[in-house]
Amino acid sequence: MILPIRAFGDSILRKVAHDIDKDYPELQTLIDNMFETMNGANGIGLAAPQIGLDIRLFIVDITPLADDEDYEDIAEELKTFKKVFINAQILEESGEEWKFNEGCLSIPEVREDVKRKETIKIEYFDENFVKHIDTFSDIRARVIQHEYDHIDGILFTDHLSALKKKLVKGKLQKIANGDVGVNYKMRFPK
User: How many other CB atoms sit within 10 Å of the CB of residue 8?
Assistant: First the structure.
């Protein structure tokens, strides 16, 4: 089932999410619905707060980037990079900061350069509640960091300079008011 994505201005996007356990009601159905929602919106990541749930759950599916010439050096790894992250905790961020033009399904029509570290070490449970501690770099780390921010109540626009925040303020207000054209279901705060 495709779920409506919460738009900028919805208070759920600012909540710090809480852990869940393996008995969370209909967890697999929720995960399936999140993948269907994300794919329907042509996204590569989606966090539970974006669909109105303040739980530490997010998904990523970077497989569409495997055919992108910008990632030909890691194309093989990207072909299968579809993951569920439950109760994730970033243990370490390392390497150089690098800029990348990010967007967000909750903030349509806004894209800005965001600096993030190139490598992360993260502890999480998968959809079967098997614990993992993995290290990711490149675009994989970037997407995970973006989605991880969502479960901590942080949006990519929070990483912008004061000037950039001023420049996008009007666009963000329009989104909060529902004045945006998207081809996926959204729920607006006003």
Answer: 24
Active-site pick, 26, 36, 69, 147:
147
Q: Which two tokens stand for residue 6?
A: 């919460």
**Residue 179: CB partners within 8 Å, gap ≥ 6?**
none
Assess contact for 150 and 144: CB atoms under 8 A: no
Q: Which residues of 119-131 are buried (b: 16+ CB within 10 A; e: fewer)?
A: ebebebbebeeee
The token pair that represents 52 in the structure block: 């109105």
Binding site annotation covers 150?
yes
Domain boundaries, the chain: 5-176
- pLDDT for the residue 133: 98
* pLDDT tens-digit readout, 1-28: 999 999 999 999 999 999 999 999 999 9
Helix (H) / strand (E) containing 67: none
| Tokens encoding 57 | 């759950």
pTM of the shown model: 0.96
Q: What's phi and psi for 93, nearest 5 deg?
A: -120, 135
Question: What residues in the chain have per-residue pLDDT under 70?
Answer: 190
Strands 107-125 vs 131-137: parallel, antiparallel or unpaired: antiparallel
**18 labeled binding residue:** no
CATH for 5-176 is: 3.90.45.10
CB 78 within 8 A of CB 149: no
Clarify whether 147 is annotated catalytic.
Answer: yes
